[in-house]
Amino acid sequence: MAIATISPTTGKTLRTFNVLSSEELERKLQKAADTFRSYRETSFADRARWMRRAAEILEVEAERFGRMMTEEMGKPLEAAKAESSKSATACRYYVTRAEKLLRDTPIDVDGDTAFVRYQPLGPVLAIMPWNFPFWQVVRFAAPALMAGNVGLLKHASNVPQCAIALEEIFRTAGFPEGAFQSLFIETSEVNRVIEDPRVKAVTLTGSEGAGRAVGAAAGRAIKKVVLELGGSDPFIVMPSADLDKAVHTAVSARLINNGQSCIAAKRFIVAEPIAQEFERRFVERMKTMVVGDPMDPKTDVGPLATPGILEGLHAQVEESVKAGTRLLLGGKPQGGPGNFYPPTVLADPPPKAPAFHDELFGPVATLLRARDLEHAIELANATPFGLGASVWTQDANEQRRLIDGIEAGMVFVNALVASDARLPFGGVKHSGHGRELADLGIREFVNAKTVRITSASGAPPPSKHAGE
Ligand SMILES: O=CCCC(=O)O
Description:
Layout: E1 4-6, E2 13-16, H1 22-39, H2 44-60, H3 62-73, H4 77-101, E3 105-109, E4 112-120, E5 123-128, H5 135-146, E6 150-155, H6 160-173, E7 180-182, H7 190-195, E8 201-205, H8 208-220, E9 224-228, E10 233-237, H9 243-255, E11 265-271, H10 272-287, H11 307-322, E12 326-329, E13 344-347, H12 354-357, E14 364-370, H13 373-380, E15 385-386, E16 388-392, H14 396-405, E17 410-413, E18 428-429, E19 432-433, H15 438-442, E20 446-453
Parallel strand pairs: 5-6, 5-8, 6-7, 8-9, 10-11, 10-16, 11-14, 13-14, 16-17
Antiparallel strand pairs: 1-2, 3-4, 4-20, 9-19, 12-13, 15-18
Bound molecules: 4-oxobutanoic acid.
The site of 4-oxobutanoic acid has 7 residues, from loops.
Domain Aldehyde dehydrogenase: 3-451
Protein name: NAD-dependent succinate-semialdehyde dehydrogenase
GO molecular function: aldehyde dehydrogenase [NAD(P)+] activity; succinate-semialdehyde dehydrogenase (NAD+) activity
């Protein structure tokens, strides 16, 4: 796919960009390695000052960055502006906590001095998606840079202006030239970068297929990798739930980001006694959602990011219906310019239908009925994915059982699954491994070095940095 801004609203190509030549890529990789040598020696105070400034830029320029995101990938403008401001929260989270989170951890071993020291790894390659083109990048970059690593960004080819803006933000904030660079390379070049000895680790947010390819390449090169992949998140509603609140949240959870979020609820598993009422209210509310120009403040659901995503989604809907799934709403692309797909509701898919086991990346909800709590958990776990789960019940025993029984990296009770700088984020099964954000996120790309000193004096040599 060419590196270009192609409006998902009109289908028009607005700007194209050249890929890096081999020599240009080589210069950038060398720059990353050279910068790392001096950058790792900078103090937490300096890094924090630059990161605080990055947060300010993200907030002050939220309108400009929001328009850029909406133009390139089609999310409603208000959500895009909010994404820029939310990215600032990740910067600030690590401004105030990085030093403490990376302080030596003392360990008591038979009277010896022992501790774990956290040291940066080096240049980290981040392969990032278009769906949250700022947030996904910043939530990698903020902890990685605060830990003393340098970043190399291979962004999705349909959000090049966002990639350029992110590099500018970190440079303008004061980070040294080369601490965060964007690489305009084809997907076919990614393996070369992963294999390059100057690159020390890889993080990917993307599809299951991309996860397999990147994970295999990182494995061959024996490099640390974090994979944040897809999800087919369940949204379980039990009879004691506040039905009104559950229905409202369910619709928002499905349509967030035009339905293109890894943690969007995709399968709504509702207990039999309330299933019919939930279905009626859910379909009614989905019908009221306004599809249109994402720059228009009245729009709830903008276009899908690319024609390919629209085609793939529609094929999954058609195949599900052919397999015996009930179609309750929508189900056909809108036609005309732009990649518009209406809010769509499917119900009772048989296990062979894509709506039962695959991730549907767009505004298509699947309703399933559960006989009881154990059946709800069985249905929730019946996909290869395990990212997030939203569960709705007032019953404490049911809450406990759901928290324990669901195979997922995150369970939210009576709430929408949402990322937050303070909470670890990631999945299990085919949703990937490793964690982003919070304390666990900053420890992914460090060498946790074990030190044991057996001596009469026992005093540890002082660290050059407070946190190392
Ligand atoms: O698409 C996955 C990430 C969504 C989020 O972090 O809110």
